[in-house]
Design a protein that fits this description.
Residues 1-46 are annotated as: Disordered. The protein is of the alpha+beta class and 240 residues long. It has helices at 19-66, 85-99, 190-201, 206-217, 227-239; strands at residues 2-3, 6-7, 81-82, 103-110, 116-123, 150-155, 161-167.
Length: 240
């Protein structure tokens, strides 16, 4: 029907779609589209995280193959041979845990070809005690006791390492029961750090987060760190 030359719709169903209706429809479509894209991104991130954890686990198992944490090792002797620097470190670190002292790398030297020629691992109490306290009335505890216990490892022509110097005597009391808490052992591997971060993002509380790591490790005594260390790492990760 026409009135004064202007077309008038004869029925509501014949009414043209308004601009606002078309806009709303487009908005809903975009929202659905964005929602779908966001889901894809989230799924991709979760898959990447799973792959990352799997890679870390594989690396962890490879490292553990070098030396079982529960293996009882013999005391070091001159002439002992190892396939790599990592094997020497793993061996002496395990021996130190077994005996009850901490270790640290003291010196190392590279050859003309740039490869490691020799290195020394010693007791953490090596060296002279020096207090850095500015207040003479409140001196800080002196940690270094001049302990001479150490091993020197030299690289052989075939790339293996042999112990050339071994000093076993310590000038302090050894504490096998407390060895896992020494700073040299109080470290988290990449796998544990990543698990803590992912659990925190999932809203898991620090206490439950730590307990999940304990259960996976097989008990508190299997971990060289405590709940406070886990909490500190999570807090640090949140600030990044």
């Amino acid at each position: 029907m026409a009135e004064n030359g202007v077309a008038i719709p004869s029925d509501e169903n014949d009414a043209p779609t308004s601009v606002s209706d078309a806009s709303n429809s487009s908005t809903f479509d975009n929202e659905d589209h964005m929602s779908s894209n966001e889901k894809i991104v989230i799924d991709e991130e979760e898959n990447e995280q799973k792959l990352e954890i799997e890679k870390i686990e594989e690396k962890k198992h490879e490292i553990n193959k070098i030396l079982d944490e529960n293996e009882i090792v013999l005391e070091p002797k001159v002439g002992m041979m190892f396939n790599s620097e990592e094997e020497v470190r793993a061996y002496y670190t395990q021996y130190a845990k077994q005996a009850g002292f901490g270790v640290s790398k003291r010196t190392s030297k590279l050859g003309h070809d740039g490869n490691l020629k020799y290195f020394t691992i010693s007791c953490v109490n090596q060296g002279k005690a020096r207090s850095k306290a500015t207040n003479a009335l409140k001196p800080r505890p002196k940690k270094n006791l001049g302990c001479k216990a150490k091993i020197n490892a030299t690289c052989c022509p075939d790339g293996k390492f042999t112990l050339t110097t071994v000093v076993l005597d310590h000038v302090h009391t050894l504490s096998p029961g407390k060895a896992r808490y020494f700073r040299c052992r109080k470290k988290m591997d990449s796998y544990v750090k990543r698990r803590l971060e992912l659990n925190d993002k999932a809203g898991i509380r620090n206490s439950k987060n730590y307990k999940s790591i304990v259960i996976e490790a097989g008990g508190f005594e299997k971990l060289p760190f405590g709940e406070k260390d886990c909490r500190n790492h999570v807090d640090k990760a949140r600030r990044l």
